[in-house]
Amino acid sequence: MAAANKIRLTYFWADESVMAEDFRGKISKKMSEFARDFYGRYGFELDVKPGYEPGKVLESRRFALVKNDGVRPDHAALVQAAAESMERLKRQMQEIAEADRILKERQGDVNRLVARMKAASAAHDAAAVDATVAPLEAATRQLEKATTNKEEVVGRVRAEGSLDWSALDFETQFRRQLGFKWLQGVMEAKRLPIVFCKYVTHFLSMRESTFSVTGNTFQAEDTPFRFFGGDWLWSAPFVCLSIEGAESKGLAHEIVHAAGHPTEPPNGKRIKDLKRYVSYKPKPLTGSVLDRALTSYENYLEYQSLFEVVEGGYYAGDSMNDIMNYNADSSDPFASILTDDDKKLLDGAIFVRP
Ligand SMILES: [Zn+2]
Q1: Per CATH, which fold does 5-74+168-265+314-348 belong to?
Q2: Which residues make Cβ contacts (< 8 Å) with residue 141, sequence separation at least 6?
Q3: Which range, 231-235, 275-279, 346-350, has the best average confidence (pLDDT)?
Q4: How many angstroms is it from 212 CA to the middle of ligand 1?
């Protein structure tokens, strides 16, 4: 019999408290055993660092990402922060656009008075020239004021900056911490990092069942070797698994995603109000670049409001007992199946290929 292909995994824990809790509850151990039995049937062998027998706490310590207070992924807060960030950006753009509009108006006043003075001068009408001097001076002062105002607004917006949601951005933080582990030699290329953590909120609670997502696979980044704040980010795929409410098959399921099986179908859209939908017309884009950008953003919001979201991502996989199907029996590794297509993905995965 040919030697089994190894699925090479490196386990990390968000912090030492998660590690201790996991070892007490044998959660990652149960997931590992499920994956071992499941993949064993397809000729794969699980190769786990630092091993999945709980109790080896001393050896495992260097696989904790941070000592305490590890990242707790909070999807709902992240979505909320993204929405707030958009609102803030919209307000900032509006303020700049308004300052810009006033500035243009004042510039127009000055231009008109200059033209009038030139015309009077060409006609040798000294009285008319004199009559434009005071208004031109006043208009110039207004223009200076508008210029200063716009500089102030732009400066303030720049100082405000965009919302800092780095504390919520667990993906970047995990990539950064995995980057540290790579530099320390704890993490190796050609292995798949599995980060055990606790999710603050379980998003995508499905109506049809009580199941909520407790695992996520983050695919490879578009830019390899990305630096962030001076740190090298792990750019290959990695998996997050919550140790709370986790299902035994969670690890086996996410491994297939990390091998390239697309994540669940995205949310769908349904037209909310047919009458509004058929009569919808985007506002024409006119004016300055800022005006146009703002109008285009308003058009986008208006258009989005015509739809309601239909949650997707429920039925994945053709067969009821496909490991990628959420509804499949999650307790028995011998009751789930791996499709031929998914097995091919596994064979070609960077963490499996010899
Ligand atoms: Zn999935």
Answers
A1: Collagenase (Catalytic Domain) (3.40.390)
A2: none
A3: 346-350
A4: 11
